[in-house]
Design a protein that fits this description.
single chain; alpha/beta; Rossmann fold; 4 domains; six-stranded mixed beta sheet; binds NADPH dihydro-nicotinamide-adenine-dinucleotide phosphate; binds pyruvic acid; binds magnesium ion; NAD binding; EC 1.1.1.40; metal ion binding; metal-binding
Length: 757
């Protein structure tokens, strides 16, 4: 089976849990707690005011406390994964894990609570009085049938969403995977025969959701430790099993599975045998979801059949059907509309949104998180993977919308597009910077040439560009090669532009050659040199398209170094008159965005060049929605210590004084002064910036390059660029290792540049 990761060892797992601060979780404050004043505001006496406000109006607890973003993960440890009743304490690693997943995937603050009782009433009473503390309750790993009673009673008693993850989280993800697997194998949901092994929390909830999706009651057979749950059976039954009992002669799992289309395991390790797999219908669908070890491994299935679609609950096999894809996002959506409950419509909306997302092209950042395995809708990719960054904007929005449609949202969302943007921003700090640009571009789409059109990354970026509504992408490359790649990627709808193809033709080549010859004839180049470049060099061809107005912008750089690509482009396009060409890196973190230049071109810019770079960087910052505050950086602050190289930067600031610009700038100053506004005001009260600098003009290329990379590596966040600034036509050159996402961003930036001219 493709792409299976190296298995982890028990030692590795123990080391992870014990290393550093033991466990996986810590709590950090969100407000400054550095001075006496901070303490007065956040604690006594300041804290009294919000207390009194909440007393007067309980709904303001969502405004003055963290309640609205905290979900308690609560268990008594009676069904820890598929390991059975390990008790409350031993369930803590799983509950801490769920809390971490809440934070990592949906920016929900999860807190684990292990309740040491097996008594249903005691458990309910322990939880019901905790309601004021949390925005929601995620019940976890509580055995059936207790979990049904507990969830039902708590839902009645509490005014916040109560959701048993093993039931509904699992059912939602299994339903999403099942939608797609049925579609892939051409099955009609009404005709599908399905066996669920297990008749506990997860199994009963799956049976219920599958039936509400359209699988007839009689087509689902449940099995448990006593065999088939048949109508009339009395041993080991309860009311929840009885509701799903069917009339059948089958008595064992083997009987039930023979000839069936789908097996869903929510029971225990090894419950399914290869012989049973053999007995299933053609193209069987096998979800072996017991954790940590499935009912049957994908390898065991492969040994007896090669036509099966197999999923497990584990991260180290393809098709991970696991509730991690659900609970973080479902609660995110529910919390954001202050839903009073999580109802069936919200669950079905989540399942449908997940299924639909799996059918879309996968960004290659996601592939990279999975050892470079190429994830593409098909038998080994029926459901999105947990590290897909699109989940955060897709699933909560679908859940929130369903909550609003069904009247359980106490704080409906007014602007859904804005909500999606805010969701993206929770995990991707660049979303904000790019949103403004993306919106402008969508209302005025542009034609962008991807010079390296035969590259898979270019093809996928072109598709992403088009489907983002940014305009028409042009892929330069041999027609048959591009078409074959499009087909192998399961994509279509873009006609490649084949330079050599007679259909495309002589007139353009002639026109571009004439254009280039006019430019270069007095720079020592012959007509035939120009013809060869246009015919054979895709960067030159693409640049000619842009230069002559046949396209609005171009991107390149995947296959050649910056210097080589840039040399090609310079043959065709000059710097903008009175402009300097340089590289601008944009680093966006959750707290701030900074623009750093020049990160690519000038090794030691002169004071004049530094001033030019500052002016153009500030303009770019403004275009991206940031009011520029420019700092000219050095190792010294306003003349101390005074050395030659610092004087060089001071000269740039003096030049700026003469240029009468319409933005704030100052310097020379050190990086800490520039970024720490309190420090700047305390030590240099005369400094002219009205806040921390957000445009950093570096004294030299090595400082710029090193600084940008250090900030990125230590500070986290996302790096856009370096963007090529100052060419007479919109061009972007990405770095050779650029991802599809980076190339798409470069295309968007280039296209936006053409709007701004
Ligand atoms: N992939 C995922 O996202 C998830 C996977 N799971 C997995 O599903 C399994 C069940 O969890 P959960 O529903 O919470 O637990 P429960 O304790 O509520 O239910 C367990 C059920 O499995 C049945 N069972 C146990 N062993 C066997 C066996 N050998 N053959 C047939 N039936 C068996 C039990 O039968 P009986 O009623 O006779 O005791 C019971 O009905 C676990 O392995 C868990 O890891 C759960 C949630 C999410
Ligand atoms: C994934 C999960 O919640 C379980 O196996 O119990
Ligand atoms: Mg669980």
């Amino acid at each position: 089976m493709a792409g299976i990761d190296k298995r982890i060892t028990e030692e590795e797992a123990l080391l992870l849990h014990s290393s550093g601060r033991p466990g996986k979780l810590e709590i950090t404050p969100t407000k400054p707690m550095a001075t006496q004043r901070d303490l007065s505001l956040a604690y006594s006496p300041g804290v009294a005011t919000p207390c009194l406000r909440i007393h007067a109006d309980p709904s303001t607890a969502y405004d003055y406390t963290a309640k609205g973003n905290i979900v308690a993960v609560i268990s008594n440890g009676t069904a820890v994964l598929g390991l059975g009743d390990l008790g409350a304490l031993a369930s803590k690693p799983v509950m801490e894990g769920k809390a971490v997943l809440f934070k990592r995937f949906a920016d929900v603050d999860g807190i684990d609570l292990e309740v040491d009782t097996r008594d249903v009433d005691e458990f309910i009473n322990s939880v019901r009085y905790l309601g004021p503390s949390f925005g929601g309750i995620n019940l976890e790993d509580i055995k059936a049938p207790d979990c049904f009673i507990i969830e039902q009673r708590l839902r009645e008693l509490m005014d916040i969403p109560v959701f048993h993850d093993d039931q509904h989280g699992t059912a939602i993800i299994a339903a999403a995977g099942l939608f797609n697997a049925l579609e892939m194998t051409g099955r009609d949901i009404k005709e599908t025969r399905l066996v669920i092994n297990g008749a506990g929390a997860a199994a009963i909830a799956c049976a219920e959701l599958f039936k509400s999706m359209g699988i007839p009651h009689g087509n689902i057979t449940l099995c448990d430790t006593k065999g088939v749950v048949w109508k009339g059976r009395s041993e080991g039954m309860n009311q929840w099993k009885s509701a799903h009992a069917v009339v059948t002669d089958a008595r064992t799992l083997a009987d039930a599975v023979a000839g069936s289309d789908v097996f869903v395991g929510l029971s225990a390790k090894g419950a399914m045998t290869p012989a049973m797999v053999k007995s299933m219908a053609k193209n069987p669908i096998i979800f072996a979801l017991a954790n940590p070890d499935p009912e049957i491994t994908p390898e065991e299935v492969r040994q007896v059949r090669d036509d099966a679609i197999v999923a497990t609950g584990r991260s180290d096999y393809p098709n991970q059907v696991n509730n991690v894809l659900g609970f973080p996002y479902i609660f995110r959506g529910a919390l954001d509309v202050r839903a009073s409950t999580i109802n069936d419509q919200m669950k079905i909306a989540a399942a449908r949104a997940l299924a639909a997302l799996a059918r879309e092209d996968v960004p290659d950042e996601v592939d990279a998180a999975y050892s470079g395995r190429r994830l593409r809708y098909g038998p080994e990719y029926i459901i999105p993977v947990p590290f897909d960054p699109r989940l955060i904007s897709t699933i909560p929005a679908a859940v929130a919308q369903a909550a609003m449609d069904t009247g359980v949202a106490r704080k409906p969302i007014v602007d859904m597009d804005e909500y999606r943007r805010s969701l993206r921003l929770r995990l991707d700090p660049t979303a904000d910077s790019l949103q403004l640009i993306a919106d402008k571009l969508r209302s005025s789409p542009r034609r962008v040439v991807f010079a390296e059109g035969e590259e898979e990354r270019s093809i996928r970026a072109a598709i992403a560009y088009r489907s983002g509504g940014f305009g028409h992408p042009v892929l330069i490359g041999r027609e048959n090669v591009v078409k074959e790649k499009l087909a192998s990627l399961g994509l279509s709808g873009i006609e490649p532009l084949d330079i050599q193809n007679a259909k495309f033709g002589a007139p353009e080549i002639e026109r571009y050659t004439d254009f280039l010859y006019k430019r270069l004839q007095r720079r020592g180049h012959l007509h035939r040199d120009c013809q060869r470049w246009v015919n054979q060099n895709r960067n030159v061809f693409a640049a000619c398209m842009v230069a002559t107005g046949d396209a609005d912008a171009m991107v390149t750089g995947l296959t050649r170094s910056f210097a080589v690509s840039f040399e090609d482009i310079e043959r065709v396009i000059d710097p903008q008159p009175d402009h300097i060409v340089f590289g601008l890196s944009v680093l966006a973190t959750r707290k701030r965005t900074v623009f750093i230049s020049d990160t690519t071109v000038h090794e030691r810019p002169t004071p004049e060049q530094l001033a030019d770079i500052a002016i153009q960087s500030a303009r770019m910052a403004r275009q991206m929605g940031h009011e520029p505050r420019v700092a000219f950086l050095s190792f010294s602050n306003f003349g101390q210590p005074m050395r030659d190289r610092a004087a060089h930067v001071r000269d740039a600031v003096s030049l700026m004084d003469k240029r009468k610009v319409d933005f704030e700038y100052d310097g020379e100053m050190s990086a800490d002064t520039a970024l720490d506004y309190d420090l700047m005001k305390r030590l240099y009260p005369f400094a002219r910036l009205s806040g921390p600098a957000n445009v950093l003009i570096m004294p030299a290329l090595h400082a710029a390059n090193i600084g940008a990379k250090l900030l990125h590596k230590f500070g986290g966040g996302n790096l856009i660029g370096p963007l090529l600034i100052g060419m007479d036509k919109p061009v972007q050159v990405v770095q050779m290792g650029a991802t599809v996402n980076e190339l798409t961003t470069a295309a968007i930036m280039a296209a936006h540049d053409s709007l701004a001219r």
